[in-house]
Amino acid sequence: MKLYKLPIIFFLFISINLYAQNDTEGVASPSALAAAEEFRFGVHAFNRFSYNEAILSFERALSFRPGEPLILDWLGRAYYRSGFEETAIRQWRAALDIYGRNTGVGMLIGSRIETITNRRFLMPIANDGVRYVGSGRFPGKMDEILLYRQPTSILPNSDGSLWVVAYGSNEVVKIDVNGIIRERKRGPLNGFDRPYDIVRGLDGRMYVSEYRGGRVSILNANGDWLAYAGSKGLGQGQFVGPQHLTIDEDGYLYVVDYGNRRISKFDPDGVFIISFGLRSAIFPGLLSPTGIAAGNGRIYIADNAAKAVYYFDPNGNYLGRLAAQGLVSPESLRFISDGTILAADGNRIIQIDPNSAIVRELGLAGGQNARITNAEIDRNGNITAANFNASEVHIMTRFDDLASGFFVQIRNVNADNFPRVIVQLTVEDRLRRPIVGLDNNNFLLTESGVPVENQVLYTPGYRYQGADISILVERSDETSRLRDDLTAASRDINRALQEMGNSKVVSVISAAAQPRRENHANSLENAVRGGGDNTSRWRFDLGLRLAATDLLTAEPKKSVVFVGSGSLGELAFEQYSLSEMACYLANNGIVFNAVILGGGQVSAGIDYLCRETGGRFFHLYRPRGIGELIKSIADNPSGLYSFTYDSRLPTDFGRAWLPVEAEVYLLERSGRDNTGYFAPLE
């Protein structure tokens, strides 16, 4: 997306226009003064997260100054944060008609309208035929300086960085989103011996196969060496050239034993269990096993020589051949979030549907001589590919994402301690996925086009350790019979929060006929268990609205955790529609999760809210409990970034409109937004 520098005169026009003369020559009209005052109230309310109050102030300002584009723009922002996207778009379109589409601010508003409108109709990743194109690369050599050699595998991290296995330089390096190497891990005292693949276990530990060493190294979550699994040899639990790895749903480790043409299975601590994949009466045997992936209760194995993908059950029983056509030189296999398999095939990145066996090419990484040994999707939705021959990591982005750039929104400006100003903004892609991993060098804040002084990035949201939650409790006739389940849910939630640290319950909301806040300071269990106000006319929408509102000023990672029967009741969306509630949550960075009591079925509404906000639903008495759900809130990506800077603009005693702009750059992508604020009245 092309970035436009807005001229200083435009911002002067904004400030003057609100006080335009209407009546007496040289004197601002009463209506202009009233509009300016209401507008100032509205901006302050917006920056306090009081969106309803802001809407009322902006509406009053418009009654004094009908058609004022700046007020229309801000009214749209307030409606957007309140979840009313259609209404917001109407205000922005009205402002756009006045500004003009070819002006700098008009282009920003037009881009905002297009992004919000289009993302409602976009399918999930890799399902809409969009190809991936190169958007950057992390070379292993810079000028004459060797950074790393011959990458074979990549493991994405929650902060946007990548662990890259460097086979040629015997190390694992961590590379951030800007391509800067932040850490190097070389194993125990004797070092790695040709490391090949890396995966992460359910408990955070990592596993690195060592091709020449004939073993697997077990590392802690920070990449420090802990122990070995297996050893070199032909026996059970031994390897000859171990390569690709995978972890199944229960945490078991599977190792492709290339030299012995078999797969070996280990428990999370590295204890050998079984091996399989040799020739049998019903299976021809593995010839050149390469990639491996676990999912849907099956183990999928690529065979480079047979140009095929076979699948087994977790006990090693052969189930069949995935009739994927057109494979050239399959290597790594990785399950991705939509349930399909991402595969490296020569210099191609392909997607395989394990149900239909349909193969779709997503893009090419490098030239004909490239050898892609591994491909992964990073936390920002890019495909990252390890090019062994070129000794570099390729970054590939969806073509439409690259063309549309980033969706940047300045969410909040705090000038209470002016001239020190605090700015909060979010960076997302067009599918509302947060962009994580950025640092101060990826941002440029300006005032009227001039870079601000002393720009400093706070700890970004993606690095925040912990979570804030609001618990929304269904008070229906059904849950009145499930009070023991409510008690159990509250205990499990409380236990998980204590184990997480730096996490808390912000509020407990009873979704009754008239939703209310419960006092949970002394006993979360009593607050969740509730009293005797259950009714068939309980209000999910009002309760959810109240629970979400309590989180507007919470920490970057936050979630409404709904505890209920799975049904949302007959008055679920009496005042606010399902889409409006989803927008209210998503537009304020709030994730919706649900704990289902009893044996209830999950309604379509709960499923929709979870999908639209990045949450999940668990049944209370699932074998592994609901602690995993609560802890996952702290792992949700956050695209929130907070800055401080020192303003040099004159305030006119708090009456002047002070502009601020933000530009974001990462590799071949960029985005921008502008806004303004008022300093405190003097």
Summarize the structure in words.
The structure is a single chain. This protein has 682 residues and is an alpha+beta fold. Helices cover 23% and strands 34% of the residues. The chain contains 14 helices and 42 strands. Strands 36-35-34-37-38-39 form a 6-stranded mixed beta sheet, sandwiched between helices. Strands 1-28-27-26 form a 4-stranded antiparallel beta sheet. Residues 1-16, 21-25 and 122-126 have low confidence and may be disordered. It starts with 7 loop residues before the first helix and ends in a 5-residue tail after the last strand.
How do the helices and strands line up, and which of them pair or pack?
Blueprint: H1 8-17, H2 30-47, H3 51-64, H4 69-81, H5 85-99, H6 104-118, E1 132-139, E2 141-142, E3 145-146, E4 151-156, E5 162-166, E6 171-175, E7 181-185, E8 195-200, E9 206-210, E10 215-219, E11 225-229, E12 231-232, E13 238-239, E14 242-247, E15 253-257, E16 262-266, E17 272-276, E18 289-295, E19 298-303, E20 308-312, E21 318-322, E22 330-335, E23 341-345, E24 348-352, E25 359-364, E26 372-377, E27 383-387, E28 392-398, H7 399-404, E29 407-414, E30 420-428, E31 443-447, E32 450-451, E33 453-457, E34 468-474, H8 477-480, H9 483-500, E35 504-511, E36 516-518, H10 524-529, H11 540-549, E37 558-564, H12 578-586, E38 590-596, H13 604-613, E39 617-619, H14 627-632, E40 640-646, E41 658-666, E42 669-677
Parallel strand pairs: 12-13, 34-35, 34-37, 37-38, 38-39
Antiparallel strand pairs: 1-28, 2-3, 4-5, 5-6, 6-7, 8-9, 9-10, 10-11, 14-15, 15-16, 16-17, 18-19, 19-20, 20-21, 22-23, 23-24, 24-25, 26-27, 27-28, 29-30, 30-40, 31-32, 31-41, 33-40, 35-36, 41-42
